[in-house]
Amino acid sequence: MKRNHAETVLTSVPYLIWMVVFTVIPLLLVTYFAFTDETGALTMANLSAVREYVAVIFRSIWLAFIATVLCLLIAYPLAYIISRAPQRRQRTYLLLVMLPMWINFLLRTYAWMTLLENTGIINRLLGIFGIGPLAMINTQGAVVLGMVYNYLPFMILPLYSVMTKIENGLIEAAQDLGAPRSTVFSSVVLPLSMPGVMTGITMVFVPAVSTFIISRMLGGGSNMMIGDLIELQFLGNAYNPNLGAAISLGLMILILFCMSMLNQLNEEDKEGMII
Amino acid sequence: MKKRSWVNTGYIGLVMAFLYAPIVVMAVFSFNESKSRALWTGFTLDWYKKLFTNEVILSSLGHTLLIAIISAVIATVIGTLAAIGINAMGRWMKSLVLNTTYMPIINPEIVTGVSLMLLFVFIRDRMGIPLEMGFLTLILAHITFSIPYVILNVIPKLRQMDKNIYDAALDLGCNPAMAFLKVVIPEIMPGVISGFLMAFTFSLDDFIISYFVSGPTFSTLPITIYAMTRKKVSPEINALSTIVFLVVLGVLTLSNYVEAKREAKTSY
Amino acid sequence: MENLIVLRDIAVDFDGERVLNSINLEIRDKEFITLLGPSGCGKTTTLRIIGGFVEATAGDIFFDGVRINDLPPYRRQVNTVFQRYALFPHLNVFENVEFGLKIKRVPESEGSANLIKIPEAERRTMVKEMLELVGLKGFERRNINQLSGGQQQRVAIARALVCHPRVLLLDEPLGALDLKLRKEMQIELKRIQQSTGITFVYVTHDQEEALTMSDRVVVMQGGNILQIGTPQDIYNEPINAFVADFIGESNIVEGVMRRDYYVEFAGRGFDCVDFGFDPDQRVDVVIRPEDIDIVPAEEGMWTGVVESVVFKGVHYEIAVEGCGHHWIIHSTDYCEPGTFVGMKLTPDDIHIMDRELAEEQEAEGADEA
C-alpha cells in the first residue's frame, strides 16, 4: 500500500469535528424543534401549521421564479457578449459586473427604496413630464426588481465562466459546416453553456426564494415571503421557534427538491450530448 | 458586423446602467446638503466629516473588520488542513465529507442562521454553558460558513498538483511534515489565498447569518445599517459606502492591471 | 560484482489486486539496469518499492545487506527522476537542484557524530558543478516553466544526482521527449552514469532504449519477471515468444521439434541449434525479420508471394505470404509486390521456445490485466 495516506487524512480531523458541531448538529436541532412543542414533546402540530401559510410559500416561489427567469434573460446575452469580447475588455467588463457586489446589499436595496418612493427621484422626474406619481414601492414588482438587481451578478458569472471555455474554433467549425447563426446557437452554444445555466439558476433562486430583507424593504408589509415568516418566529413578535424550525425544514426540503430536479435535467442533457 | 458590435456595446451599457444607477445616486447624494435623497439642495462634505465622528458606525465597522480577520484566518487554517486530508481520503469517505461540506453553501443562508441560533441557544439554555450572543457566536458562525469556501478553493489546486511532487520532496530527504511545508503548501498557495479572500469578503458582507447570532450589545456594520434602514438611513452611511466603493474600485483596478501585466509576461 | 539491492519474493497488492508477483531481483553496484515491459507490467511499482513510495505486501528488500522494508523514502540512499520530472514549480532551476542539499545533514568533520547543514557557499559550488555536468550552465535563475522538456529533464537529473545517491531511479525519464532529443539524452545519461559511477535503475517500455543503454535488462510482464540478462542475451536468446516479440518485431510460428537440432515448420524440416526438447514437442519458432534472406524462388527453402513493400529508411519492410503465414522481412533490396520469391535461413537464425511456458505465462498475464 501507499505510505503516508492514513496520516494525511488526520489533518482533516479538526474540520470534521467542526463540521459535526456547527453544521450537522444544528441541522438536527432544526429537525428536532420542528417535531416538538415548547415542552419538548413530540408533535406534528408545527408541520401541519405550515399549511396555513401556503399563500406566502407560493408567493415566494412565484416571485423567485420570475426573478430567476428575468436574470437568465438579461444575463445570457450579456455573458455571451462578454465572453466573445477581446481579452482585456473581458476583464474590465467582469470587474464592472462584480464591483456592485462589494457594496453591502442592504445599502443597494435601500438605494432602490429611495429611487422608487412616491417622492423619490423617478417619480419626481416623471412629475416634470406631468406623469404620476406612480405607485412603485411596496409592490410585487418592486420586490422582483430588488431580487434581479441583487442577484444578477450571480447569474452572469457562472454563465460567463462556461461560455469563455467555448472555443471560437468550435463556433467557426459549426459555421464552416454550414450551420446558420440560429443553429450554431441551439446546437453548440446552448448545450455547452447548460452547466452554467444550472449553476446560475441555483445561485439566484435559492437566495431569492428565502430572502426576507428585499421583501420587507421594497414590498412593504403586504408582500410577506417565507424568509419573513421564519424571521418573525425567531426574532419577531410571533416568537415560536418550533414553527420557525418547521418552516425552515420545509424551505430546505423545497430547495433540495428543486436542486435535484435541476440536476436530473442537467444529467439527461449530458446523456443527450453523448448520443 | 459594425452594426452588431454597436448593438452589443449598447446592451452592455444598458445592463451596466441598471447595475450602477442606485450606486451613483447614493454617491451623489452623499454630497447633498440636506438629508433628502431626492432633492438636491447643495454641495457639502459634512457627511464625510460626521462619518469619522459617528461612534456607532465606527465601532461596528471595527467589529466587522475584527470578526472578518479572525474568522478568515481560522477558517483558512482549518479549511486548508481539511482540504489536504479530504484529498487523501478514499472515495466513499470523500464524497460523504464533501457533500456535508456543500450543505452550508447550498442551504439558504436564513436556514444556516436559524440552525446556528438554535445551537447557541441550546448550548446556553440546555447545557448551561454561558455562551452569550455576540462576539464569540459571530466568530463561530462566520468560521462555519467560511470553511467550505476555503476547502472548495484549495481542493482543485491539490488535484491539479503533480502527485509526484510530494514524493520528490520525500525522495530528496524531507520528512512528511517538511514536504508539506516546503512543497505542497507553496504549490496550493494561490488556492489558499483566494479561499482566504473569499472568507474575508463574505464575512465583511454577511448580514443574514449574523442577524440571527448577534446580540443587542455587539453589532457588525451590516446589522447597524439594517437597524438604520428601519428608521431613516443617515447620509453618513452613503459617505461610507462611497468610500468603500472607491477603495474597492482602486484595489480591483490595480490587481487587474498587475494580473494583466503578469499574464502578458508569462504568455511570452 | 557485489549486489547492492536485493528484492526477495516481493509481492504488492493494490486494493486487493496483485500487481507484483513474488519478484526476485538482484541489482549490482555501479551497473545500469533497465526494467522493461509494457504498461501495467509492474516495472514502475518495482521502482517505487526501491524508492520507498510503495510498501511491499510480502517479501523483503535489502540495501547493502540491510533490510530496509520499513525505511521511509527520506532515509534511503536513493534518489529518483520522476515521470514528467516532478520539478517544484515555485522554485527556479538553482533552487530546485539545491533543494535536497538544504535538507541534507553531514558530519561536521570526518568521522564526527555532530551533524551540520552544508554551508551555503559549498552548496552553491555543488549546484553549479552539477548544472555544468548536465549542460545547463547559466540557467540558474530560470523559472521551471520557461524550460523546454529536455532542459526540465536535465534539471530533474541534476536535482537527484547532486545528493550523491548510491542508486538513481529513473521512471520513464525520456518518455515526454521527441525522438531526436531522446536519442541525445540516451547517450548523455549513459555518459553521466559512467562518469559518476552511480547505479542506475531505469524503467522504460521502449525496448530500443533498454538495449542501447543497459548493462542488464529485466523484462517484465503481468507482475512477473520473465527474463534477466544482457541486451545481447535478451535479443538473441529470448526465453519465450512474448519476450522475443516485445524486444523486436519477430516472426513467430508454431512448429514441432522432431528431434534434437531438427525442427519442422512452414511445411518442411529445418536444421537448428536447439536441443533438449521432448521428441515431437510442439514449440514456438521465432525468426527475426532481418535474418530471413529473399532469394529467387527456386533457391528458397520455402516460397511465398510478396504482398507489400514499405520503405523504412534503412531498409524495406517486406510482407510475404507463404505456407499459411505472413512473413515480415527486413531487406535492403527492393522486391516488386506480387512476385513469387524464395526465403532462406541459417540454423542459428532459428530460435526455439517452449510453447507451454509461453501459454502459461500469457494466461497469467491475462489474469493480472
UniProtKB/TrEMBL annotation, chain A:
It is a multi-pass membrane protein. Keywords: Cell membrane, Membrane, Transmembrane, Transmembrane helix, Transport. The keyword Repressor does not apply. The chain crosses the membrane at residues 12-35, 55-81, 93-113, 125-152, 188-214, 243-262. Its main location: membrane. It is found in: Cell membrane. Residues 57-264 form the ABC transmembrane type-1 domain. The keyword Metal-binding does not apply. Pfam families: BPD_transp_1. InterPro entries: MetI-like, MetI-like_sf. Belongs to the binding-protein-dependent transport system permease family. CysTW subfamily. This is ABC transporter permease. It comes from Yanshouia hominis.
UniProtKB/TrEMBL annotation, chain B:
The keyword Cell membrane applies. Pfam families: BPD_transp_1. The chain crosses the membrane at residues 12-31, 65-89, 101-123, 135-156, 208-227, 239-258. It is found in: Cell membrane. Residues 61-255 form the ABC transmembrane type-1 domain. InterPro entries: Bact_Polyamine_Transport, MetI-like, MetI-like_sf. Gene3D superfamilies: MetI-like. It is a multi-pass membrane protein. Coiled coil: none annotated. The keyword Membrane applies. Keywords: Cell membrane, Membrane, Transmembrane, Transmembrane helix, Transport. PROSITE patterns: ABC_TM1 (PS50928). PANTHER family: PUTRESCINE TRANSPORT SYSTEM PERMEASE PROTEIN POTI. Belongs to the binding-protein-dependent transport system permease family. CysTW subfamily. This is ABC transporter permease. It comes from Yanshouia hominis.
From TrEMBL, chain C:
It comes from Yanshouia hominis. One of its GO terms (molecular function) is ATP binding. Residues 5-247 form the ABC transporter domain. Keywords: ATP-binding, Cell membrane, Membrane, Nucleotide-binding, Translocase, Transport. This is ABC transporter ATP-binding protein. Gene3D superfamilies: 2.40.50.100, P-loop containing nucleotide triphosphate hydrolases.
